[in-house]
């Protein structure tokens, strides 16, 4: 009866998800070579939230920030607590000093950690007690919560039980995130961890802090700044979220049937981070490519319409075959799309390659970067987020290095 009295508050309402974009305003977070953590966390947090809103009408999404503003850790937790959130997810980007090779996706939950002892767990229990005191503002609380004493030994046991359950749920979400995000993005699984994290310690519901990758590692910073990566992360996080709900949310009433469209990518990262002029590479110096698993190229190339304004040179000799080939990446899908799929918006001759668990669709192919640059401008009205990628010997390569090689070969 006592447990029912406490949980009745959460019954008969929509599932509430609070999405927290770490840092903001004067707090830039971890610095990369050309980008900041605060911009990337906002970009990914908003994209994930919009995807949830589009796919899960029974979920209420609340953001701790939607713009480049500073919010205290206590303020972020307060937003979640006052909303009576069912789940709290905080987006961050990792960094280490003294190394440019550490990489991978991590997720963190509240725990004892290496040096924190039981302080974080004790503080979280106090938060649960304080947040539950809102019941005394309700009409007829003496009848609804009859026999409930927040200071009784019995209540303390129940609070500890609820706190333990929250941590159990958080750990399960962390495990699901590691599984699905790494599968979707191809990122290294850097593990699920626990520590005395303030933003989680101050919340009264299950929660998880996501470290999407290491901005201090060149290839990971590049990956995180690539708009195509946003869809990969969002898909993986969404899969984990839905599995979590299927396990713990008894009130789920909307079938898991995600929309086919890619998530809307908020343009919150300053555009000068990624501008590439037609005759020159980005201001960032090309770095030595870190060897990773090469994507499998799709052997089936669809027939190109004769009147399509696209360059597809026939490589006649070995020297030409060794040159980088530039293409325009249009979209990403976990499924194989037909040549006449409406998502291609009438473009014919679309090609694809496989990377991780996804099919990536490209348009055009040329060893002349300027031709592909001009072609991209022709289709921007249909694909405003399209960007140029490069391949060499069938393997994807760093775009800046490809442009540099193109200029050297001219």
Description of the structure:
- The longest helix has 33 residues, at 153-185.
- By secondary structure, the protein is α/β, with parallel strands linked by helices.
- The protein has helices at 2-7, 37-55, 73-83, 119-132, 141-144, 153-185, 198-201, 218-225, 227-248, 318-321, 369-379, 399-409, and strands spanning 15-21, 59-63, 87-94, 105-110, 189-195, 207-214, 296-297, 325-333, 351-355, 358-366, 387-392, 395-397.
- The strands form 2 sheets. Strands 2-1-3-6-4-5 form a 6-stranded mixed sheet, with helices on both faces.
- The chain is built from 12 helices and 12 strands.
- Helix 2 (37-55) packs across helix 9, helix 4 packs across helix 6 (153-185) and helix 6 (153-185) packs antiparallel against helix 9.
- Helix 2 (37-55) links the parallel strand 1 and strand 2 (59-63).
- It folds into 2 domains: 2-248, Zn-dependent exopeptidases (Aminopeptidase, 3-Layer(aba) Sandwich); 275-409, no CATH class.
- It is globular.
- This is N-acetylmuramoyl-L-alanine amidase.
- Its EC number is 3.5.1.28.
- Keywords: Hydrolase.
- InterPro entries: MurNAc-LAA_cat (IPR002508), N-acetylmuramoyl_amidase_3 (IPR050695).
- Residues 77-242 form the MurNAc-LAA domain.
């Amino acid at each position: 009866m006592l447990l029912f009295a406490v949980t009745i508050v959460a019954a008969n309402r929509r599932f509430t998800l609070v999405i927290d974009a770490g840092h903001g305003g004067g707090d830039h977070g971890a610095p990369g070579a050309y980008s900041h953590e605060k911009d990337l966390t906002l970009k990914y947090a908003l994209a994930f939230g919009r995807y949830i809103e589009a796919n899960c009408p029974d979920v209420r999404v609340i953001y701790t920030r939607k713009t480049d503003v500073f919010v205290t850790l206590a303020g972020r937790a307060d937003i979640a607590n006052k909303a009576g959130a069912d789940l709290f997810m905080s987006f961050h980007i990792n960094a280490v000093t003294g190394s440019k090779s550490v990489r991978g996706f991590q997720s963190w939950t509240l725990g004892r950690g290496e040096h924190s002892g039981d302080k974080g767990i004790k503080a979280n229990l106090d938060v649960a007690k304080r947040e539950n005191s809102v019941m005394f503002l309700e009409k007829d609380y003496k009848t609804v919560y009859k026999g409930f004493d927040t200071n009784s030994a019995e209540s303390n046991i129940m609070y500890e039980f609820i706190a333990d359950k929250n941590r159990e749920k958080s750990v399960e979400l962390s495990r699901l995130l590691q599984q699905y995000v790494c599968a979707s993005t191809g990122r290294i699984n850097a593990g699920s961890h626990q520590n005395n994290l303030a933003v989680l310690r101050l919340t009264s519901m299950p929660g998880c802090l996501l470290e999407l990758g290491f901005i201090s590692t060149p290839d990971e910073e590049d990956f995180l700044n690539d708009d195509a990566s946003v869809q990969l992360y969002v898909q993986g996080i969404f899969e984990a979220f839905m599995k979590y709900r299927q396990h713990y949310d008894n009130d789920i009433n909307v079938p898991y049937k995600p929309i086919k469209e890619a998530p809307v990518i908020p343009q919150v990262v300053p555009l000068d981070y990624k501008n590439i002029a037609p005759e020159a590479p980005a201001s960032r110096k090309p770095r030595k490519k870190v060897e990773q698993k090469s994507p499998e190229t799709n052997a089936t190339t669809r027939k190109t319409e004769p009147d399509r304004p696209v360059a597809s040179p026939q490589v006649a000799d070995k020297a030409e075959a060794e040159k980088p080939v530039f293409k325009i990446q249009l979209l990403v899908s976990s499924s194989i799309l037909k040549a006449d799929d409406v998502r291609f918006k009438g473009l014919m001759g679309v090609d694809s390659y496989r990377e991780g668990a996804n099919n990536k669709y490209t348009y055009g192919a040329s060893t002349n970067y300027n031709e592909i640059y001009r072609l991209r401008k022709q289709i921007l009205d249909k694909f405003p987020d399209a960007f140029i990628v490069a391949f060499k010997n069938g393997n994807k390569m760093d775009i800046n290095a490809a442009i540099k090689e193109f200029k050297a070969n001219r």
